[in-house]
Design a protein that fits this description.
The chain starts with a helix and ends in a 26-residue tail after the last helix. Helices cover 28% and strands 23% of the residues. A 3-stranded antiparallel beta sheet has the order 1-2-3.
């Protein structure tokens, strides 16, 4: 039922808090979330982060201080944030933002585990993925 709710809930407000680096979003079902910019960035639904299929996800690092410099509406179904590191290809649908907000603790722990498994720190500079599409294995975030 929660996933059905995520698919049906519509946003009532969306606020970018630059100083605290969180995106605050309230939905018409009463749910309200404060999603850190770093989590939004490392869980971007873009192909650049998620890859083009299972196992092609690219582990994101060095995103602790990332900011949202702009956010653009996409129809009535999504937003496209522009991040300070130049990333701007992710379309965050309302259901995906709901899932990120609802599941952020588990997603964050999964991300930290992926970093540990890869032997890298979350502040390490990004390393380009190896050729052949091996970007680091299972994604840290839910499917967009």
């Amino acid at each position: 039922m929660a996933d059905q709710q995520a698919g049906m809930a519509a946003p009532q407000s969306l606020t970018v808090h630059g100083a605290s680096r969180v995106l605050e979003i309230a939905f018409d079902d009463g749910a309200s979330f404060r999603i850190p910019f770093e989590l939004l960035r490392v869980c971007s639904p873009s192909a650049e982060v998620q890859g083009h299929g299972p196992g092609q996800e690219v582990l994101q690092t060095g995103k602790r201080d990332v900011e949202i410099t702009a956010i653009e509406p996409v129809g009535n179904y999504a937003v496209k944030p522009v991040f300070s590191d130049g990333h701007q290809s992710g379309l965050y649908t309302w259901p995906y933002l709901y899932e990120l907000g609802r599941d952020q603790e588990a997603l964050w722990q999964r991300y930290l585990q992926r970093l540990a498994d890869a032997g890298v720190d979350r502040d390490a500079p990004m390393v380009p993925p190896r050729r052949g599409g091996d970007g680091g294995g299972a994604g840290a975030c839910g499917a967009p």
